Amino acid sequence: GDVSYRFYLVGTSAPGLGMDAVEAIVSPAVLHIGTLGLVLEPIGSTVEAVVGRMPPETLVMADLNARPSATRDRAAWVARIERLLGRMDVVKASVDDLRFFRPGEEPIHAATAMVENGPSVVLLTDGPQPVRIVTARGSQTVEPPRVEVVDTVGAGEGETVLIVQGSSARFTEDTKKLPIDCAIVGIIDHVQVGGKNVPFGK
Q1: Element spanning 141, H or E
Q2: How far apart are CA 119 and CA 90, in angstroms?
Q3: Are the C-beta atoms of 154 and 187 separated by less than 8 Å?
């Protein structure tokens, strides 16, 4: 919580993703959607269309990852999520995401309402606080391990891999016997700032 972002979108390639670029996506084991991919156009419409044609056996996971500063039409974003809820299997959302999605409503209540409209589970995060796992049977909390944080880039992707690892990351002979903390592979090669690799400063 209590973070802000600035986005440089004009002239970048991501918003322009169209159906011609995703025709090869037929029946993946897991489809991950969210963030600006549900906000910008034409990528938002493309993602929605791809989700709509996924077979029942494809696990659809959504990370809301709301970005108010980049969301010019909040009502359209909310409407898109509501249309997709019925096909989402897993939703990861922070308390800030749900406050933007349902202003004035307690995040835990918003998460419960989501489950009632499609997803089997909503994973509700709140910074360093315990993760709340919300299902039709109620909710429970899981205390995250305490670790030394070097850089949070890729943290959301890492969580996603760990969440769905039982569905996809163990499909190969090389990965199916790995412990859960080995599921995060190759999220970041390196980040360069001013000619130096961050965080190593080399």
Answers
A1: strand 138-142
A2: 5
A3: yes
